[in-house]
Amino acid sequence: MQQNTLPQKLWMSATGLFLCVFLVIHLLGNLQLLLPAADAKEQFNWYSRLLSGNIIIKVIAWVLYCSIIGHAVYALLLTLQSRRANGTRYVYDKRGASSKWYSRNMGLLGTIILIFLVIHFKDFWYRYKFTDLPLDARGQPDLYTVVVFAFAQWWYVLLYVVCMFAMGFHLLHGFFSAARTLGLYHPKFTRWVKVSGWLYTVVITGGFIIIPIYVYFTNS
Amino acid sequence: MDAKIPAGPLAEKWASYKAHAKLVNPANRKKMDIIVVGTGLAGASCAASLAEMGYQVKSFCFQDTPRRAHSVAAQGGVNACKNYRNDGDSIYRMFYDTIKGGDFRAREANVYRLAECSQQLIDQAVAQGVPFAREYGGYLNNRSFGGVQVSRTFYARGQTGQQLLLGAYQALMRQEAAGKVQLFTRHEMLDLVLIDGKAKGIITRDLQTGAIERHGAHVVVLATGGYGKMYYLSTLAMGCNASAIWRAHKKGACMASPSWVQFHPTSLPQSGEHQSKLTLMSESLRNDGRIWVPAKQADERAPNDIPEAERDYYLERRYPSFGNLAPRDIASRAAKERIDAGFGAGVMKNAVYLDFSKAISEQGQNKIAEKYGNLFTMYQRITGINAYRQPMLISPSAHFSMGGLWVDYELMTTIPGLFALGEANFADHGANRLGANSLLQASVDGYFIAPYTIPNYLAGELQGGKTDTDHPAFEAAEKAVRQQLQQFLQSKGQLPADHFHKTLGKILYDYCGLSRNRAGLEKAIREIKALKEQFYHELCITGNERINTELEKAGRVADYFEMGELLCHDALTREESCGAHFREEHQTPEGEALRDDENFCFVSVWEWNKGEPVLHKEELVFENVKLSVRSYK
Amino acid sequence: MKLTLHIWRQEQGASTGAMHTYALTDIPEDMSFLEMLDLLNEQLMKQGERVIEFDSDCREGICGQCGMMINGRAHGPLKHTTTCQLYMRSFKDGDTIYAEPFRAAAFPVVCDLKIDRSAFDRIIGAGGYVSVSTGQAPEANSIPYAHETAEAAFDAAACIGCGACVATCKNSSAALFTGAKITHMALLPQGQTETAARTQKMVAQMHKEHFGHCTNTEACEVECPQQISVLHIARMNYEYNKASLLHK
């Protein structure tokens, strides 16, 4: 059954933009990993515990889980609908020449990000929440050591970097596409959003790429 | 011929008609069926307006959607005597310009009504959302167009026809969605059905399934456009055809002055055997371009290698006061004269130069690009030539048909209940149409005239009830249509319909084109007869009776033969030169047209008589203007 | 030039189609692409074969009737060009050319390269008009609006309804077509009164016709013969969101 896709698109953009905001907070927190080792350990573990205990943070966390799931589910529904809308496939298809590759492959990029999230959640979130981590000098669960241990492996760092690139391209298209869906049509503001989207993407992606590489080189 | 022109002073005729026209009670309107064939400006506006009034309308077009009708291609603009420029424009002045532009061969009352309704049309189009050009203060802008001294042309960039048509199309789709209009796209009308001498329906072919259908109504409106495509190479669309009006003609609707066909001076020349159409370049180019040919015959040099002294700016030479802006018929004829005399340019020596070098050196390339950039791009796309560096090649091509089905003041043909609107009727342009008057006439016919005159006719038809499509007349018409299609399909020749169409086009260009003479026209008639004979023996059609472009073409070409003959016959019997009709026997010593008001101040109205046309005359009476010689020297 | 052509042949909507191969020689470069097909059809007729059905009418790029996928691109390799305005000088001797109909569930194939685009008409019928009947119009200059507004409205109104935007879209979305009409009407004072209802009705019809959603790849703007801007899609979204929030 064909549904009006515009409300679904609105949910896509709303959840997407929320995730964008989350990424900023997440990156700011993670930047603590770039401090000198001793400070970093203390700060990062304190920050991790702060996040796990706060009720407001808990609510936001649930919104976050819902956003991730909602974003993925709506994406899947919309993709299925566009499959139906396409009808017969082209025998010879060079339509790619008229648009950017990443704008056409948001689903693929999104899937890579989803796989990454599974690994990411399993290695850090799950271990922090559901296993007993050793405690640091101040009695806080020592997530820092877990992180440093993980990023000491070159293949793990490489995996991260590749996935961050996928996320980067996803953000690059997603950020301005969301603005479009919300109805930003004025040419001047559209230009601003394009520029902001680029800046945002470079900062976020760059930040998340630097951290594992820095940790890898400072701890090996 | 009685045109049923209302009595009274010219300026009050239309008001008086409207005041006395019969009306149909709103409750009765939904019982009345109206067929409108064609969805161009005239057809769509008429169908929408009648549906808004409450009638049941069936609308037909051969294209895949009503929005494609060829009104879409009109570029320049639409005239209206709003006098927004305070430059002395008025209904009378517009009426006079149109009458004079038509070389005094149009009906006074019709032309006056056209000018009168032009004001309302702009209001209507603006209300529909047509984005006409605006001045910075927010009020409507105008430009001036060939042949007049005031600024009365409203425009939407170079796509005025498209925007006006979209307005009418949207109005039509609004009624379709409301269930008042039934739309039949990819349908072609193949015959008109008469019951007791009145138009009561049509036979159509569904071009998608091949189904032959009967449609009955109380009134049939033909708004099927012009027949210029008969010349094969023309500015018209591939599907434009004369079949609807021709088949109506064969059922008894008289045809008026069919030989009055306008040739547009600035279209692209033919470049090869396989060319299918001649693209129109906006006439506005003549505002800055200078037209010339080499002064030496068969000059093989590239245009830029020909020095100034060896160029013949023939329009500036012959018509010093109007120069490159001489009216269409004059500019086209002058080009043909030079080409025929052996001074033509281009590979096929069939064109003249339109040169922008002077304008570019005076105004700069940027200014020219700003004005005509899109046209230069289009020119380069088609020809591969950069017109900023080299002059364009242009030539005249068949464009607009002033002639068409004869209609009276009510736009009704000689068949009661059959109306003809827009370019399909002979209407208001006389022997030559002024630029930006065709969109106007089509719209005015559909929006403002037919909605009064059709009810006036319908008021007398209330007793009859629904039209019965099982009537023997429908049966006979359907049978004839099926027979013709079968005949085509069984044809076992080797030549495609296009071959015959092209050959016919060439005959018409040569002998019944920009200039005509007795010997040529007689020869053309003989050649067309022979070609028609060959057509029925050597036509090749593949495929079946379902979707089949070739079958569509065959029917149209078959009609063109008969109509082409009538064109030549009409031109032959009009022993004068007027407007677009130029008989070489009738010219001044300087080669200008010589009109004969003494003997030919009438419209030739032809009745079908199995290929032996019978002439009736509608004498033109001029009570409000003095007949004068058109001079653009 | 010499060409090898692979052209989609399909007897009618219900039947299955396939690519057929044809060869042509001596094609001059100043021939248009459609004239090249005319020539091929002439050859097919000589061999007693059914001609290739394709749509075209004005052949000067304004009616919107022509349109097919040429070498995998809507209206062929050039940007902002209709099929009829594509000339053979865009190809070279020995080229292989693929021609297929525009494809989308909302554009069923009628025969060979002909498709049914009546879904566009129904979107317009759903609300793409100003509700003014003949005779109701006020004096034209009584509704002044800025020169820039008129130009912007024209930019949106210039759509020729060819369907290339849908054909080139990976989601077969009609957002550009619908958005352009909504913007055209929303910009003008005479169209504004109905904007909310119009937007909702047209968007609903667009989905009812089984067009896909828009993912802002902007391919449509590139292939659009009239260079209709993708910002009209954003305008449609804006009007839709506003209507959803504020309209009853």
Characterization of this structure:
The complex is a heterotrimer of chains A (220), B (633) and C (248). Chain A contains 8 helices and no strands. With 220 residues, chain A is mainly α. Chain A has a single domain, classed as Up-down Bundle (3 helical TM bundles of succinate and fumarate reductases), CATH 1.20.1300. Chain B is an alpha+beta fold and 633 residues long. Among the domains of chain B are: 266-399, Succinate dehydrogenase/fumarate reductase flavoprotein, catalytic domain (Flavocytochrome C3, Chain A, domain 1); 472-594, Up-down Bundle (Methane Monooxygenase Hydroxylase, Chain G, domain 1). Helix content of chain B is 37%, strand content 15%. Chain B has helices at residues 13-20, 26-29, 41-53, 91-101, 108-128, 160-177, 243-250, 314-318, 328-343, 357-363, 365-383, 438-458, 472-490, 497-511, 518-538, 549-573, 597-600, and strands at residues 33-37, 56-60, 78-79, 153-154, 181-184, 187-195, 198-206, 212-216, 219-222, 255-256, 261-267, 290-294, 311-312, 352-355, 392-401, 404-405, 418-420, 602-607, 614-619. In chain B, the strands form 5 sheets. A 5-stranded parallel sheet of chain B has the order 5-2-1-9-17. A 5-stranded antiparallel sheet of chain B has the order 11-15-14-12-13. Chain B has a 4-stranded antiparallel sheet with strand order 16-10-18-19. In chain B, a hairpin with a 2-residue loop joins β6 and β7 (198-206). In chain B, α10 runs antiparallel to α11. Chain C has 248 residues and is α+β, with helices and mostly antiparallel strands. Chain C has 2 domains: 3-111, Beta-grasp domain (Ubiquitin-like (UB roll)), CATH 3.10.20.30; 118-246, Fumarate Reductase Iron-sulfur Protein, Chain B, domain 2 (Orthogonal Bundle). Chain C has 9 helices and 7 strands. Chain C has helices spanning 33-46, 118-127, 147-157, 164-168, 175-187, 189-192, 195-208, 219-223, 231-246, and strands at residues 3-9, 18-24, 69-70, 73-74, 96-100, 109-111, 114-115. In chain C, strands 2-1-5-3-4 form a 5-stranded mixed sheet. The N and C termini of chain C lie far apart (62 Å). Classes of the chains: A mainly alpha (220), B alpha+beta (633), C alpha+beta (248).
